[in-house]
Amino acid sequence: MNPTKFFKFVVSCKDSLTSIVLDIRQDDAQFCLAPEQILLHCQSLVKLHYISRVLQKHAAWTPSIAEFQHMRLIDLTLQLGCPSGTFDPSPFLKSAPNLRRLSLNGMEIDVRYSVVLSSLLCQHCPLLSSLHIAAEINEEMSLNDTAWQVQQMPGLIEFSMSDRFERFSGYVYSMKLL
């Protein structure tokens, strides 16, 4: 679908759309409808799953949703093909205080950032109950460090983390918290 027509469609249905699953597989750099544009225009959304490799061509992309609060969004998946280490999910976390399910793919995780991410989630997403992270995991990072950070989130019930580049054979960490 033509990107302009798609955006016009989204804007025309903005008050009635509650769920969008967008999987952009084309390598056309013209299709650069960023996830924050969808959130800004569709305030009735409850679920946004945004999967794209297109943003990797825009290395300087930074979400521009400062001071915006999307009160209805409870399920967010961001799978972005950004160059390694350039995706910062904090603008999305700060703008969606009612998130219950979050899936992130396309960022770099080390011990320092796991502390920052845990703090952001506790502060801005207090209702979060399910978290999945597929990231480039720093080799120095310990699963014990991650588990401790995750346990600081009081409402979290499900957590899984995997290395998106599979440097570690079968490296998937998953737990149910009681």
The end-to-end distance, rounded to whole angstroms, is 45 Å
**Percent of residues in helices:** 25-40%
Total number of beta strands: 7
Runs in which pLDDT lies below 50 for 5 or more consecutive residues are 166-173
What does this protein structure show overall?
The structure is a single chain. By secondary structure, the protein is of the alpha/beta class. Helix content is 25%, strand content 26%. The chain contains five helices and seven strands. It has helices at residues 3-12, 35-41, 90-95, 111-124, 143-150; strands at residues 19-24, 47-52, 75-80, 101-109, 130-137, 158-163, 172-176. It has a seven-stranded mixed β-sheet with strand order 1-2-3-4-5-6-7, with helices on one face. Strand 1 (19-24), helix 2 and strand 2 form a beta-alpha-beta unit. Helix 4 (111-124) packs parallel to helix 5. It is globular. 26% of the residues are buried. Residues 166-173 have low confidence and may be disordered.
Q: Any descriptors?
A:
5 helices; 7 strands; globular
Write a short abstract of this structure.
This protein has 178 residues and is α/β, with parallel strands linked by helices. 25% of the residues lie in helices and 26% in strands.
Could you give the topology of this structure?
Elements: H1 3-12, E1 19-24, H2 35-41, E2 47-52, E3 75-80, H3 90-95, E4 101-109, H4 111-124, E5 130-137, H5 143-150, E6 158-163, E7 172-176
Parallel strand pairs: 1-2, 2-3, 3-4, 4-5, 5-6
Antiparallel strand pairs: 6-7
Helix pairs in contact: 4-5
